[in-house]
UniProtKB/TrEMBL annotation, chain A:
Gene that produces this protein: atpF
Compartments, record wording: Cell membrane; Endomembrane system
Name assigned to this protein: ATP synthase subunit b
Location, primary (coarse class): membrane
Sequence intervals crossing the membrane: 49-68
UniProtKB/TrEMBL annotation, chain B:
GO molecular function: hydrolase activity; proton-transporting ATP synthase activity, rotational mechanism
Predominant location: membrane
PANTHER family to which the protein is assigned, alphabetical: ATP SYNTHASE SUBUNIT A
Pfam families assigned to the protein according to its UniProt record, in alphabetical order: ATP-synt_A
Gene3D superfamilies: ATP synthase, F0 complex, subunit A (1.20.120.220)
Residue spans crossing the bilayer: 12-31, 64-82, 119-143, 149-169, 178-202, 222-244, 251-270
An annotated GO cellular component: proton-transporting ATP synthase complex
Organism expressing this protein natively: Mesobaculum littorinae
Annotated compartments: Cell membrane; Membrane
Protein's recorded name: ATP synthase subunit a
Gene designation per UniProt: atpB
Membrane topology: Multi-pass membrane protein
Length: 199, 277
């Protein structure tokens, strides 16, 4: 305790001495430092200024030659990448829209083509149908005409047969009654009769 | 789901309580038996040679050299090594590098316009140096280079000289219109010009002292609390908790001061490029 107090007193005395020293011999007490403000010790100024200038020049050199161009390049590259990506996205969007338009157009084309083909097929079928119907009509007309002729023929031959049968019958009847049939008279009579019958 | 959340909370509480217990025990066993109040908050700012104990010449490697080297290496790790993948989908480190790039780039473009982008490497150098130096300065036992007025004054003077030279080279005598407020009544203009000139020359002063002062004050306050912690014995966990809170605030300050320095640089550059009001 005794010694501690002594040291405090001694220190105070030391401080007082350095303080006095500062008043007399300005700046010589820098190493002690406990008295006065080190910031106002002008003897250290050249040293501080010299090393500060070295430090500033070093930092300026490194920044302007290496760090700042590099960071600027990185930032520019990032900006460029973002811009490119946005442009690519925009382009892809346009392409998608284009694809949609062309898809819709193709769809409409296909639809109209299908309609055209259907109409064509329909028309073709219709014309074929018309032709077939006409042919069939023609055939039917031909067949019915032929049938009519044949019916006429049949009728005519039937009439001839009837005449022959009538003449032969008349001759036979005449013969049966014991007469001699006069061929010409019988024929005339039968003809007259048939005509009369017909009339 | 609910049970896992509960157990997570329980584990968190347990960890917190355990940490406090360890803190108290550590203070009990390792703390000074006879607490003394010896606070030297400014010792941490002393510039000392790295090797030996001689005088400090302009070329002597000092703790300034060491911690500026750390800051330069930090910037290179973040911006060069972090972005070496050049991936379109970035890694975590590359994201942070791109975030820093975009942050400063947008700030410069918004404030100073397209013409201001010529100065992008310059402004980026200032921002990265200040923010990394502030952050590594928060490592316990580190030396904070940006808490020294010599450092911030050089930074601010560099901005001041750049703005003034660019202003005159680009605009010639028209750069002086910056001080001649044409929208004010004619009688007021000389008065305003006087005020504008003074404020123009005060710029580098406020620009540099704002940064150095903020960092110096924060670090000194933390050192003062640390001194209390050494002196209070068992109750020292209170100042330690306060240091934890201060540390969070200082992290915020470290970033905000770098931001403020950079945006003011952008504003001054705008004045140089478009001087008319």
């Amino acid at each position: 305790m005794e010694e501690e107090t002594h040291e405090v007193v001694g220190h105070g005395a030391d401080a007082a001495v350095t303080h006095g020293g500062e008043v007399v011999g300005h700046g010589a007490d820098a190493a002690h430092g406990s008295a006065g403000i080190p910031q106002l010790d002008f003897s250290t100024f050249p040293n501080q200024i010299f090393w500060l200038l070295i430090a500033l020049i070093a930092i300026y050199y490194v920044l302007s030659r290496v760090a700042l161009p590099r960071i600027a390049a990185v930032l520019a590259e990032r900006q460029g990448t973002i811009t490119n990506d946005l442009a690519a996205a925009e382009e892809l969007k346009l392409k998608a829209q284009e694809a949609e338009t062309s898809y819709n157009k193709a769809l409409a084309d296909a639809r109209s083509e299908a309609q055209r083909i259907a109409a064509e097929a329909k028309a073709e079928i219709q014309s074929e149908l018309d032709a077939a119907i006409a042919e069939a009509d023609q055939e039917i007309a031909a067949k019915s005409a032929e049938s009519e002729t044949r019916i006429g023929e049949i009728r005519a031959s039937a009439m001839t047969n009837v005449e022959t049968v009538a003449k032969e019958t008349a001759e036979a009847i005449v013969t049966a009654f014991g007469g001699t049939p006069d061929q010409a008279a019988v024929d005339q009579a039968v003809d007259a009769r048939l005509k009369g019958g017909a009339a | 789901m609910g049970s896992s959340t509960d157990s997570g909370n329980g584990a968190g509480k347990f960890a917190l309580i355990a940490a406090l217990v360890v803190l108290v025990l550590a203070v009990l066993f390792t703390g000074p038996e006879t607490p003394t109040l010896s606070i030297h908050p400014m010792d941490q700012f002393a510039v000392t040679p790295l090797f030996g104990d001689g005088d400090i010449a302009w070329y002597t490697p000092t703790n300034v050299t060491l911690w500026m080297l750390v800051a330069v290496v930090g910037v290179i790790l973040l911006l060069v090594v972090g972005s070496r993948g050049r991936a379109v989908v970035p890694s975590r480190a590359q994201s942070v590098a791109e975030l820093a790039y975009g942050f400063v780039h947008k700030m410069l473009e918004d404030v100073a316009g397209k013409e201001g982008l010529k100065f992008f490497p310059y402004v980026m150098t200032l921002f990265m140096f200040i923010v990394v130096a502030n952050m590594v300065g928060l490592i316990p036992a580190a030396f904070t280079t940006t808490s020294h007025i010599a450092v911030t004054a050089v930074l601010a003077l560099a901005v001041f000289l750049t703005v003034t030279i660019v202003g005159f080279v680009k605009n010639g005598a028209k750069f002086l219109e910056l001080f001649w407020v044409s929208s004010a009544p004619l009688v007021l203009r000389p008065v305003l010009a006087f005020i504008e000139v003074i404020s123009y020359f005060v710029r580098p002063v406020s620009h540099s002292i704002r940064l150095a002062g903020n960092l110096m004050a924060g670090h000194a306050v933390m050192k003062v609390f640390a001194g209390f912690a050494a002196a209070l014995g068992v109750a020292s966990f209170l100042p330690i908790l306060a240091i934890v809170a201060m540390y969070a605030l200082e992290l915020l300050v470290a970033f905000i001061q770098a931001y403020v320095f950079t945006i003011l640089t952008c504003v001054y550059l705008k004045d140089a490029l478009h001087p008319s009001h």
